[in-house]
Amino acid sequence: xxxxxxxxxxxxxxxxxxxxxxxxxxxxxxxxxxxxxxxxxxxxxxxxxxxxxxxxxxxxxxxxxxxxxxxxxxxxxxxxxxxxxxxxxxxxx
Length: 93
Hints:
Elements: H1 11-43, H2 48-71
Helix pairs in contact: 1-2
Pfam family, one: GvpK
Main location: other
Keywords: Gas vesicle
């Protein structure tokens, strides 16, 4: 009877990959929120104050994402997963 061999896992690499996955999801949500905000601005649904607040919030969120990527050694382009025939997860700006 043979025992199943253990998977040799590099904990540091695993942690970095998990951080990259979480940051990918956050970046996807950030981009979706940005697109929705732009649609609402274009429709004229928001006051000037609301437009300013949204702009400031999105700018701060973008800065924080850049900080988190740098802090964890993840490049922003690493967050754009290749989905094979479907293309990439995040649109290329």
